[in-house]
Every structure is written in C-alpha cells, then in structure tokens.
C-alpha cells in the first residue's frame, strides 16, 4: 500500500485536519466492526481518499456518528464518518493488502520464506480478500481491477518478462496500479450519485496511481539497490531526473482531473490530491538526492520551515543517486534490513494520529521537540496563522488566516489555495 498523502495538522487548518481525522477513524472502525480487530492493520492514509472523494461530491452521503474513547485519540471520543464511502475504502484496503501479502509469499521475501509464516500469511490474505470482495459486492463495486492488479504486477516484474527483447517500460509497469486506483475512484461517483464525474475520477485515479507507484520506487531505490530487490527505475534504466519529470507530468494530470470534478466540498480533496501530492514529490526527490533535486515547497505556516519529511532510508550513504550508475561498493556491515510484509507500517501510521500526540513518526517535524510541545492537549493552534502565506485569495474567509492569536476554527477554506 502506498502512503503519498500523509498530512500533518501543522499544514492544515483545524477544520480540515479534523475532517480528515474523521475519515481515518471512520475507516478504522468500519474495518473493526465488519471484519474484526485484526483487519484494522490495513488502515492506511491513501485508502481514505475514496471516502473523502465520496463526501466531496455529496456531503449528505457521508453522515457522522459519535465514536467512543480510543487510545489512538488520547482516550477521547470523536465524530467519525459512517457511510458507503468508508466501506468502499475498507474494501479497497483489504483487497490491496491481501494482494501485497500474496506477492510476498510467492516471492519468499524475508520471514515469508519460512513455511509456517507463509502458510499463516496466505490464510490471512485469503480471509482479507474474501472480506473485501464481500463488502465490494454490497456496494455494487467490481473488485476485479484490484484483485488482478497484484497478479499483473507480479507478471510484469518476473525475470522472464525482464529478459524479453522488449521488456516492460515504466508506463507499462505502473499500469496495474493506475487501473486499480482508477476503478476505486470512479465508483465514488456511483455512491455519491454523480455519474458525470466518473470520467474525471478515472483520470484522477490513473494520475494518482502512477504518482504513487513512482514515488514508492524513488523512496525504495537505495534499499532496493542494496538488497537486490526489484525496482522499476532500475529495471527500466530511468534516472531520477527523468523519474521526476514523469512524477510532475502525473501530478499535472491529477490536478487537471480534480479541477474538472463537480464537487460540493472541494477543500479537503484539493488539499490531499493536489497540494499534498505535490509536497510528496518534493520530499521524495529531496531525500533521494539531497541538495540536487530540491524544488520549492508548497506554502507552509510562517516559521515552520519546509514541513515534515518521509522516512525512506535513502541518502548518499546508500549508494549512487542515479540508477544507471555503478554501485559505490558494498556498505560496511550487513545490508539494511527491510520489512517486506509492511504489516507494521499501518500500525505506526495509526499511532501518528494519536490525539494526545506523544508519539511522532519520523516524518513529523515535532518529533525531536519536548513532550509538552508534542502533546496536542496543551497546544493552541496559533500555528495556523499565515497558512495562506499572504496569497491574498482567502484572507477574509475566516479569522485564522489573519489573526495569529485566535484559535483556528474555520471550515478549511483557507487551505484551498495553492
């Protein structure tokens, strides 16, 4: 599963961040209520986009309910989304997680090379696949593009495919991901009763899917080179400059598709699909090649620097920046250990969203600050001041854009200028 959209409360007005959290908690609780506690492991940020898109098209289709206290929210209750869009997000998350586990079992990655682990993982994948398919059926969603995506991807990445006279190109390698995301995005038009949005949603899904696949490849490049794992950039001889061009082209297509959508509440959708994906490109390439591929970051609240970076374990010490360059020699000591299953990453992602905020993921800019600073219970939201950075397009829409001393309680309108 991909994690392009990782918003931080410091780059969103309180209203937008709370709205995003209601989708996140709604997804987690939908998985728990329909499929058991273990299924909550597949909760992921990007899966929320399905729920967000459904609500953006038809706010009435995404009612809230009051949820009880949860440790991941600092033992507080919350208003969470309870709607068909959240259930679709749960179905998509389960199906993609099942496909990912099957792929690791087939490849014998890491602990999956052990027969007992592989057998248990295969049973879990089957359980999640059946659960996701059953939920999809109740929503009228055909899960075939999602269930077939993992098989198509594995086929394209097999040594036999790479040995062909004309091996798969980069766009062909990103194709399964594009198709899967496009299908999920397009079905939100059905759930929201906006069939005229379907074509634009498919285009947005293809752009987002390609972008997610490419950024994942960039973030994993150093580790994949060190471990000998498959990486589409290495396989196709694509350098980082060319990869960045592909990412920016995909982002432009994604932005154009979002602009063409009929949305009743566009603020959160634009913040996630346009602004945060642009930030993701900058973070990924800046981390991959420090000092050489930096691009100006999107506007941030005054005094907060460039915002959080993502953990990728990449840098000059892990090898050359260009995939076509010869290796710089084996690193000292054993190669970096990977987490092939990725099963713990959703747990860390969920912990990132603790309302109490004492846990901070590596990409959070408050990670190194004191416990008092990290605890949201003691923070005010004065950081929201200047969120528009003087763009002038929305300075009068709510008090948080102009009053540094007021608590930001706007509906997110000031986060919709880019």
What does this structure look like?
The chain is mostly helical and 418 residues long. The protein folds into two domains: 9-321 and 340-379, Farnesyl Diphosphate Synthase (Orthogonal Bundle); 380-418, no CATH class. It has helices spanning 14-35, 48-57, 84-107, 115-138, 144-157, 159-162, 170-192, 198-227, 232-236, 240-259, 267-288, 345-352, 371-374; strands at 64-70, 76-81. Helix 2 crosses helix 7 (170-192), helix 3 (84-107) packs antiparallel against helix 7 and helix 5 packs antiparallel against helix 7. The longest helix is centred in the middle third of the chain and has 30 residues, at 198-227. It is globular, with a radius of gyration of 21 Å. The two termini are 27 Å apart. Mean pLDDT is 74; it is low at 291-361 and 374-418.
Short descriptors:
single chain; mainly alpha; disordered C terminus; Farnesyl Diphosphate Synthase; 418 residues; two-stranded antiparallel sheet; 50% helix; 2 domains; globular
Uncertain ranges: 291-361, 374-418
Spatial shape: globular
Instruction: Provide mean pLDDT, rounded.
Output: 74
Question: What is the makeup of the main sheet?
Answer: 2 strands, antiparallel
- N-to-C SSE series? HHEEHHHHHHHHHHH
Class from secondary-structure proportions:
mainly alpha
In the CATH scheme, what's the topology name of the largest domain? Farnesyl Diphosphate Synthase
Radius of gyration from CA coordinates: 21 Å
Q: Termini, distance in Å?
A: 27 Å
CATH homolog superfamily of the largest domain = Farnesyl Diphosphate Synthase
Quaternary structure type? single chain
What is the helix fraction of residues, given as a range?
Answer: 40-55%
Q: Beta-strand percentage?
A: under 5%
The count of β-strands is 2
**CATH structural class of the largest domain:** Mainly Alpha
Number of helices: 13
- Order of strands in the sheet with the most strands? 1-2
Please give the CATH architecture of the largest domain: Orthogonal Bundle
Q: Tell me the number of structural domains.
A: 2
InterPro entries: DUF5685
Biased composition (Low complexity): 313-322
Region (Disordered): 285-339
Biased composition (Pro residues): 323-338
């Amino acid at each position: 599963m991909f994690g392009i959209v990782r918003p931080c409360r410091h780059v969103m007005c309180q209203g937008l961040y709370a709205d995003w959290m209601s989708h996140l908690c709604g997804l987690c609780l939908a998985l728990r209520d329909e499929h058991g506690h273990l299924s909550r492991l597949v909760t992921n940020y990007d899966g929320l986009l399905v729920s967000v898109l459904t609500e953006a098209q038809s706010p009435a289709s995404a009612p809230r309910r009051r949820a009880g206290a949860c440790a991941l929210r600092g033992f507080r209750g919350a208003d969470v989304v309870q709607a068909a869009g959240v259930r679709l997000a749960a179905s998509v998350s389960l199906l993609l997680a099942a496909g990912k586990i099957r792929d690791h079992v087939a490849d014998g990655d890491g602990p999956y090379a052990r027969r007992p682990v592989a057998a248990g993982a295969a049973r879990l994948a089957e359980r999640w696949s059946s659960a996701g398919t059953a939920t999809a059926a109740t929503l009228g969603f055909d899960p075939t593009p999602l269930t077939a995506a993992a098989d198509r991807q594995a086929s394209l990445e097999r040594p036999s495919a790479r040995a062909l006279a004309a091996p798969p190109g980069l766009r062909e390698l990103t194709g399964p991901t594009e198709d899967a995301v496009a299908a999920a995005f397009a079905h939100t038009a059905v759930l929201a009763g906006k069939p005229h949005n379907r074509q634009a949603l498919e285009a947005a899904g293809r752009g987002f899917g390609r972008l997610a696949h490419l950024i994942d490849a960039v973030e994993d490049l150093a580790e994949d080179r060190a471990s000998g794992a498959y990486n589409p950039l290495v396989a196709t001889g694509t350098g980082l400059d060319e990869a960045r061009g592909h990412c920016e082209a995909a982002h432009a297509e994604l932005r154009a598709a979002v602009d063409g959508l009929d949305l009743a509440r566009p603020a959160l959708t634009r913040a996630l699909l346009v602004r945060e994906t642009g930030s993701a490109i900058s973070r990924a390439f800046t981390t991959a090649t420090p000092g050489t591929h930096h691009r100006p970051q999107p506007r941030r609240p005054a005094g907060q620097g460039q915002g959080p970076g993502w953990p990728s374990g990449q840098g000059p010490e892990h090898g050359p920046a260009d995939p076509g360059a010869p290796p710089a020699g084996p690193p000292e000591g054993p190669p970096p250990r990977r987490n092939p299953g990725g099963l713990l990453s959703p747990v860390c992602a969920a912990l990132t969203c603790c309302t109490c905020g004492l846990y901070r993921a590596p990409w959070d800019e408050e990670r190194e600050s004191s416990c008092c600073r990290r605890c949201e219970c003691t923070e005010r939201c004065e950081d929201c001041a200047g969120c528009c950075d003087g763009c002038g397009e929305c300075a009068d829409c709510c008090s948080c854009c102009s009053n540094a001393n007021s608590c930001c309680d706007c509906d997110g309108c000031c986060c919709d200028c880019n």
